[in-house]
Design goal:
291 residues; six-stranded mixed β-sheet; two-stranded antiparallel sheet; 10 helices; 8 strands; globular
């Protein structure tokens, strides 16, 4: 029997579409994490990926479990850390958000990040890396509602400016793909159940290239995890991150490849859980102003 071709050969020869990329990795997709990511791809491709304010998401009940918040600034983990501090809040996609609560997460989310770091090692050979090479850098975890509203209002204004033909409701629906509203809604970042991450290459001392990061610095048409208009290498890196996160029990938000959560309504919907377990944490508004 002819032995299977090495991963590196496949990655050079296959076409750049997600469909072909998955077709070339059938063995990986047989795993639980591979199957979960492929199901997300199928939902997104079929136009069935809901926004965070979709009625099917918002109708899921939340029963707060009282789990404590932990602060990454007080924990030393060589594989999980905050991105550098910015000059001003939200000053750069290469820095953390710069807000006081950005380093806080529910304890259960941190434990899943530890499992994700382990999964990055397990899956590394399948994606051309070595165990210990890729780590996790945090942009933001917890976010207060005042800051959330500011970011929503700013994104809404941006969309209306770029697409003045849209009605206010249409612009609202588009905004909700990228920034969760605070009215009649529980933004997941306000619960401590969500985390925005970038992958870090410890060998090159640089962020792993998964395509443009973030949507708060302007439009990012390639933010959705399964965007086609990115390089094959970027798709492979996204698949690597998404599968590692899924192996750890973290659920990716279809429209933002960097956003993962567990125990929130979106996670409950995707995994068909009866309820979410994290409600908005009690927070004072951020002492920093978002300009």
């Amino acid at each position: 029997m002819t032995p299977p071709l090495p991963f590196q050969y496949h990655s050079r020869m296959m076409s750049a579409t997600w469909k072909d990329l998955f077709a070339g990795r059938r063995e990986l997709l047989k795993t639980g994490e591979g199957a979960a990511v492929f199901r997300q791809y199928e939902l997104f491709s079929a136009g069935s990926a809901p926004k965070v304010v979709d009625p099917k998401i918002k109708e899921i009940p939340i029963y707060e479990n009282g789990e404590e918040l932990i602060d990454l600034k007080t924990i030393f983990d060589p594989r999980i850390g905050m991105m550098p501090n910015p000059v001003k809040p939200f000053g750069s996609p290469d820095c953390n958000s710069g807000l006081a609560n950005a380093s806080k997460l529910r304890q259960g989310i941190f434990l899943r990040l530890e499992k994700m770091a382990d999964a990055l090692d397990v899956l590394a050979p399948s994606f051309g890396f070595e165990a210990g090479q890729i780590g996790i850098k945090i942009f933001e975890g917890l976010r207060d509602l005042s800051t959330q509203k500011t970011l929503y209002d700013r994104k809404l204004a941006e969309i209306l400016s770029l697409s003045p033909e849209l009605s206010l409701e249409e612009a609202h629906q588009e905004t909700c793909k990228w920034v969760s509203p605070v009215e009649n809604n529980i933004p997941v970042h306000s619960t401590g159940a969500a985390v925005d991450i970038r992958l870090w290459d410890n060998y090159s001392r640089a962020f792993l290239d998964l395509g443009p990061f973030g949507v708060i610095w302007g439009p990012n048409p390639h933010a959705p995890t399964f965007s086609e208009g990115i390089a094959r290498s970027q798709k492979l890196n996204r698949l690597y991150g998404a599968m590692s996160a899924a192996r750890a029990g973290l659920t990716n938000y279809f429209y933002e490849y960097w956003h993962f959560s567990s125990g929130d309504r979106y996670d409950a919907w995707f995994h068909q859980k009866p309820h979410a377990i994290y409600h908005s944490a009690i927070l004072k508004p951020s002492v920093h102003r978002v300009n």
